[in-house]
Amino acid sequence: MDPDLQQLLQRWLSDDWDSISDVQQSISPMVRRLREDDSFRESFVEELALLGQLRAVQSSEPRWLQLEDLLGVKAEPGTEGDFETLLMQRIDAAPLEPKSHRFRWMPAVLAATVLLASALVIGAWQIGLNGIGPKAVARQSRETAGDSGAAAIHSQVKSPTDGIAVLSQMVDARWDGPHRPDVGDSLGTGRLLLSSGTVQIEFFAGVRLLVRAPADFELMAADEVWLRAGVASCFVTEMGRGFKITTSNLEVIDLGTAFSIQAGGGQESEVHVLDGAVEIKSGGNTAVELTERKAVRATTVGLEAVTYSPDRFPQTADLRDQLLRQATHAYQRWQRQSEEMDADPDVLLHYTFEEADPSALELTNRVVRKSAATDGVVIGCKWAEGRWPMKHALLYRNVNDRVLFQVPGRFDEVTFMAWVRLDGLTQQNTSLLMTENPARRLRFAPIEDKSIADAMQRLQTSAVKTVRWELTRQQSNVTLSIGHGLQNRADYETVRADSVSTRPDRWGHWACMAVTCDVAKQEIVHYLDGAPIGRGKLKSSEPLLLDFMELGNFGASMEEITKSNGNSIRRFYGAVDELVIARRAMTAAEIKEFWLHGKP
Fold first, then answer.
1. What are phi and psi for residue 21, nearest 5 degrees?
2. Per-position b or e across 386-397, b if 16+ CB within 10 A of its CB
3. Claim to verify: residue 218 and residue 277 sit in the same structural domain
């Protein structure tokens, strides 16, 4: 292997991406070759593909962002979006054209990847390595590996590399037994008991399996399932040819097809071939090939033909329709709850992100009784799909993305609630919601803007100088910090909690995060998905000053970023589709209701 390629791969696959300066010194020649050498670039992508790392952003720190920085590329000419997203879109859109038994999917992936990489590199041709910005991306903390608290909450978490399949969709699904996976979870070998609903499982071998309850089945290997009871439909790509489903009296081997199968439940096993052909073995009898639009039943004397009835089995189109109906129902339920939230006199600010203009520059504060809280100004973020297909969200991808607004006043109690989708932790600290020193706004505001002068006066007379709701890479990884000064850490009181939503295996999932603060009781409580996950005490009982605020970022200047070696960068990487700020500490029951009515 090319020594440069070997070193670049070692750095990519390790956690050794500590600082931009280090990267510049050690691998800048390789990055230059990525730009200029088509063969080297193709070899790099091919090795990543063979190592199963093309989707590494979903299971580890998003190194695509770092590669994007090093190449000096933000988007393919004429398009919008980040390097990794565009690459994934091209890969997803590329047709599978199997060539060999071992990585049949490689040609399409390589073609899409090299095509995009070439376009990106051409667009960045004149950008030198000296043009790399100050973005410093720290590696993911390994402290979480021994976190017994997280293990108790989510005992089934596995590294994505341990799995043989992914649970991609569920409709009204309920599990029995010890293993109860959720959408997006990696599945290893093991038994699953589905008591209601329908699930869709996608095997890394290139097979889609739909299972309808009641069902008892076991994932035996990447190419084999044992169906004890239930009905299922199997859709197999050429890559997955040879996939096998066994029952108590049948063994069905795919020959490049789609088929449905029934087992147990007091009924005899049946196989219905939707497309292509399967090979069926029953008892000690010779294998029989069954072709499309044919069906058989296993009896005590052998196989017998039955009426072909595909409608009895789960189909992809049916699942899609069910998911849409389910999403519509949940969305309407959330709309009703949102109207009640808007009417609550203690709610100061409610952003639903339901703007009529798909390119809106402002977020409307939906509260009925207008408070001094303002509408939000959208900076840089892109509009995207929210918790449901019909709901809007703001997508945060770039270092300057944020929403600016104001909630002037001092408060003895506050509640922050937000529906967020975390797609990665790109630095040590990530901002959810933070107050901003009004002096920063002086650089941009009109001279006659009296709101800044008023805010400066409030800040001077307030004991509390800043409020920060953040995510970190530490074990206790969601924090609310109250700053009584701005000089050092001793000026801050911080209450931390451990949130499984920050774990890499939960990235890409919507989560309901909330925190309450009651300064009279000197208490802070953190919540995740309607349940308290941690609480702590404050030493001070000073009212909280909010005023100018930022959602999903922190307004650090370039000087501050440089002095902190990049640690002042706190940009959020993900999506947000609802935010609530209230002037009372909501009860656990209220926060649980907010989650129940809003969960996708």
1. -65, -40
2. bbbeebbbbbbb
3. yes
Considering the domain boundaries, does residue 412 fall inside one?
yes
Q: What is the pLDDT along the chain (600 residues), one digit of tens a residue?
A: 677 777 776 665 544 444 444 444 566 777 778 777 777 777 776 665 544 433 333 333 444 445 545 554 444 444 444 444 444 444 444 443 333 333 333 344 444 444 444 444 333 333 333 332 322 222 222 233 333 333 232 333 344 446 899 999 999 999 998 999 999 889 999 999 999 999 999 999 999 999 999 999 999 999 999 999 999 999 999 999 999 999 999 999 999 889 999 998 778 899 999 999 999 998 777 899 999 999 999 988 889 999 999 999 999 999 999 999 999 999 999 999 999 999 999 999 999 999 988 788 999 999 998 778 889 999 999 999 999 999 999 999 988 899 999 999 999 999 999 999 999 988 888 999 999 887 777 666 666 677 888 888 888 889 899 999 999 987 768 999 999 876 566 678 999 999 998 888 889 999 999 999 999 999 999 999 999 999 999 999 999 999 999 999 876 555 555 555 556 578 899 999 999 999 999 999 999 999 999 999
Residue 393 lies in a domain: yes
Backbone angles phi, psi at 324, to 5 degrees: -65, -45
DSSP lists the bridge partners of residue 258 as 235, 275
Calpha distance 377→352 (Å, rounded): 14
**Secondary element (H or E) of residue 132:** none
Domain count, the chain: 3
Is residue 593 included in any domain, yes or no? yes
Select from 7, 23, 13 the least CA-distant residue to 50: 13
Shared domain for 256 and 207, answered yes or no, is yes
| Domain harbouring 540, CATH code | 2.60.120.200
Domain of 498? Answer: 345-598
Task: Collapse the DSSP code of 229 into the 3-class scheme (helix H, G, I; strand E, B; otherwise coil) and give the result.
Answer: strand
Whole-number Å distance between alpha carbons of 299 and 312: 20
Contacting residues for 598 by C-beta, under 8 A, at least 6 apart: 334, 337, 387, 419, 512, 578
